[in-house]
Amino acid sequence: MIDVLKDIVLRMIEKPLNDGVQPNIVVPPAVEQAIALPMFVSLTEADKQRAIDELITSLKPSAQSGALLANKDDVNHKAWYKEKKEHIEFNYWNRYRKYLLQKKNWALDVVNKLDDSTDTILELLEDPMEKGRSFDRRGLAFGYVQSGKTAHFTGLINKAFDAGYKLIIVLAGMHNDLRTQTQMRLDAEVLGYENSVKHTSQNKENRIGVGTLPGHYILEVDSPTDRTEQGDFQSTRALTFNKQIMVVKKNKTVLEKLLKACQRSPQALYVSEEDSEGKKGYKIIHDVPILIIDDEADQASIDTSNIYDENGEILEEYDPKAINSYIRQIYKTFSQRAYLGYTATPFANVLINQDAATEMHGQDLFPQDFIVNLPKAFNYVGPAEYFLKTDGDTGKLPFVREINYDEDFAPYSHKKTFEPVKIPDTLKKAMYSFILAIALRRHRGQEKKHNSMLIHVTRFKDVQEKIKVLVSAMRKEILEDVENGEGRGEHYKGIKKQFEDEYNAQKLNAIQKMFPDQFDDYFTAEWSEINPLILGAIKSISVMSINGNSADVLEYADYEDKGLNVIAIGGDKLSRGLTLEGLTVSYYLRASKMYDTLMQMGRWFGFRQNFLDVCRLYTTKDLVGWFQYVAEATDDLRAQLDYMAEIKAEPKEFLLRVRSHPNLLITSQNKMRSAKQMKVNYSNELIQTTVFPIDDEQFYKQNYSAARALIEQIDEQYEMNPQIDMRIAQQNSSHYFWTGVEAQPIINFLEKYQTVASATRADSKYIGKYVRSLSEVGELTNWTVVLINTGGEEEVFTRSIALQRGIKRTGIEDKINNHLTSLKTLISGEHVLFDFSKEMAEKAQEIKDRDKVEKKAKGTTALKIRALRKPTDALLILYPFNNEIEGFSKLVGDLTYANESKPFAFAIVTPETSSEEAEVDYVINESIVIEKDAGAEYV
Question: What is the pLDDT of residue 672?
Fold first, then answer.
């Protein structure tokens, strides 16, 4: 009855909410009014308060909106949805919307964002009800890992059925577990019934999900696939092409069966020789509008075959890889077709050649028509929150605990015959954390919620099974100790100490304050309150191995009434797509060479409302480093998309830009087995040197010499500190600056300056090539050079300039290479605006103010501000380091002005350019990837 009450209240308060009235003001009186109805006479005061609390929580605003890139020259597209929307009966969508609000307690603003976003995509598809008109629409949806991409395409599927699409194919990963999980989700949220049981769809006992909502009947949609292990598409399953949805694996055999079934259907007609769809021998199905949803579109769907001849031209005919081939052939079988890929890591998708096509397969899966950046929910916890947000007091990542490889458990390198001997102490601590997480959640009233622990340390199934034996034995040992040890046992004491160290009130409240959107209240507990819950928590835990050799299955749906508490041990199956419900603790070891897929392996991202503070990730420091790098690269990619959406760029422009973006180099390196040339473009960038060798005095001598040579040259040729309309001139500082500097001195500096090879984004040699290339066409010819002067006592730098000790930055351990030290950032505050005039600075402030109101990402704002510069104008800032302070004192050697080895770093700010000369050749070689224990290399 509480769900019914909430539904009535939501309808009552819709107008005041739209008028801007805050939920905490409008909800309580509306509940009081509604609960007076006779139908709610049995509800208690506690029920009323629960309804109020859940409604206020669900009405919190979301953090960000999405962005859209669309094809401007879209002559074949007919706008249709806005005009027809009022005439469409949204039975499927309205049922799903109600389900999200009532059953899943989604925030109203998040549901409204989903509504708007799916409307936008549907408009970019075509009208499925227009008979006889062929269409081909291809797009890409860029989401966040574990962020609700499935919910998004589920919403789109429901609307697509409402609009008239007849067949929807969901490509769901490469493993049965993921396919089954997606099928179960769509059974509940589209079909409304469980279709693997031999009942009719109208059998009330078989209803699930949206089918259980009061007042909603089962809608006419069926699925030729089901949730069982054998439930993938089979040749014997009927294709009616009338409101059908199927969930299939990206598997050669399955897709081949589906292609043959489509080609053999009575609706499939041979193509005449003059038909533009292809030559005779191919079949086409007309007037059956199809939508293919490609979940994790960067996995398996990408064609990795060689499509080029010796001259670099695309071959007229080539053989795509099998999965890509069958997807394209199935897609090409229908004359009314739409393809939408979903991914959180589109790096591989941007490498698809938009011109690649064969007569047999049609065009490759390039998202030629649109790319949409899916909105981020206000309470989503992703890579940035895990790996880029540190505790202000300690400077540490609040959820991450660094561990090492253990030779007796899971060495850095091992074979499938490896025999793990014993559980390491770090895994014991992780298991203690999981036990405490269950107990703490139960103390908070979350006893019916699922809790999962992930152990991902090997890709070998046989080793996973052996680890399962060890973990199961350890669980029993812990249980025996706690149950019979009378508080004196090793494990009981270990759990208590873990609580005192990790889960005391001060630690939990610190996290709750850092992430207020993830908590509806402040939670705290004393050991005396948690202690009685420990034994029950241990007893409730199951240990499972999730791989192709195991009979274990994560059936969360079977434990909805009491919650499933499970330690899941696995590898590839758990690394992509598969959702672990209530994941609280992860123990994760994988070699750094796997970093290009790290984001997808991060199962711990997602929504952790009211239990984020009990979540922990145990992993190695090198993996933390790679996660940090890829998190920054992915955030930058989103900022690029948002920015290009604002300047009305097209998908092909975005993909061309991203292909040459410095952040893509680190991904490409891991995919190359030999040197390969690609393009790099530093348009509209803030480039900073933030990685330095710990023990290499000659490195610092080289860069000191480069910095001094630059300053000596420009100080002779240009006026120092001129009084002009520029922020640096108006500030009361000791910094030196020169304006109107030509490109050649900058090029000379960059060619002489050394950077660490692994820091591809700040590669001085290629930045120099970029400056030279653009200067030859009249761009980047007007530089402002700033020499930072701060830090106290002055010493001689050049004949005419004395410099203070330099900036203070805390060097942090480079997680990937222990020969290096890193900085979170080099540049300070408003330094990027040093060369701005008063008018430009005012425009920059307007952009900041507007984007803050619109909740734009900081990276998007920065791109727009940098774009205010003319193509001729750029900024170079030189920073001497005070390496004697604590933190940066890790640097070894006599690094002083007197020894001509003072550390110098640089920051460069470039303007936006559309010049073809902006792309310079970049030769990638795998040898520059810094692996574990390798020394530093420089360029």
Answer: 35
Burial class of residue 541, CB neighbours in 10 A (0-12, 13-18, 19+): buried
The residue-averaged pLDDT of 672-682 equals 55
β-strands 736-741, 782-787: how paired? antiparallel
pLDDT tens digit sequence for 547-566: 766 666 777 877 878 899 99
Structure tokens, 236: 């014997």
Burial (CB < 10 A; 0-12, 13-18, 19+), residue 855, is middle
Alpha-carbon gap, residue 599 to 576, rounded angstroms: 9
- 669: pLDDT strictly greater than 50: no
Burial of 884 (0-12, 13-18, 19+ CB in 10 A): middle
pLDDT in tens, 816-837: 667 888 877 889 878 999 999 9
Copy the structure tokens of residue 447: 């006893």
Instruction: Report the share of the chain in percent with pLDDT over 90.
Output: 48
Closest by Cα among 557, 356, 571 to 458: 571
Residue whose structure tokens are 């392996």: 601
Q: Reduced to 3 states, what is the DSSP secondary structure of residue 740?
A: strand
Distance CA 598, CA 386 (A): 13
Q: Does residue 936 contact residue 929 with C-beta atoms inside 8 Å?
A: no
Structure tokens at 715: 């100080």
CA distance 37 to 288: 48
Quote the distance between the C-alpha of residue 911 and its chain's center.
27
Task: Report how far residue 618's alpha carbon sits from residue 596's, in angstroms, rounded to the nearest whole number.
Answer: 20
**Distant-in-sequence, close-in-space partners of 820: CB < 8 Å, separation ≥ 6:** 691, 692, 693, 694, 756, 758, 814, 930, 936
Q: Is 305 helix (H, G, I), strand (E, B) or coil?
A: coil
Q: Which residue is associated with the tokens 């393009």?
A: 679
User: How many angstroms separate the CA atoms of 51 and 656, rounded?
Assistant: 50
Length of the chain: 939
Helix (H, G, I), strand (E, B) or coil at 895: coil
Q: What is the pLDDT of residue 595?
A: 45
Beta bridge partners of 920: 680
Which among 515, 496, 476, 376 is positioned nearest to 63, based on CA atoms? 376
Share of the chain above pLDDT 70, in %: 85
HEC states along 358-406?
A: ECCCEECCCCCCEEEECCCCCCEECHHHHHCCCCCCCCCCCCEEECCCE
DSSP 3-61: HHHHHHHHHHHHHHHHTT--HHHHHHHHHHHHHTSGGGTT--HHHHHHHHHHHHHHTPP
Confidence label for 7 from pLDDT (cuts 50, 70 and 90): confident
- Strands 812-813 and 820-822, bridge-based pairing: antiparallel
Q: Give the pLDDT band (50/70/90) at residue 106.
A: confident
Instruction: Report which of residues 118 and 815 the model is more confident about.
Output: 118
The candidate with the shortest Cα–Cα distance to 469, out of 431, 430, 422, 436, is 422
Cβ pair 280, 300 in contact under 8 A: no
Q: What number is the average pLDDT over the span 799-805?
A: 94
CA 74 – CA 651 distance, rounded (Å): 12
Q: Report the pLDDT averaged over residues 109-138.
A: 92
Angstrom CA distances, 166 to 133, 171, 286, 728, 880, stand at 15, 17, 12, 63, 65
Dihedral angle over CA of 723, 881, 706, 698, nearest 10: 170
User: pLDDT of 374-429, one tens digit each?
Assistant: 878 778 888 888 888 887 777 788 999 999 888 889 888 888 899 999 999 999 99
Measure the CA–CA gap between 662 and 685, rounded to whole angstroms. Answer: 10
895, two tokens: 């690094």
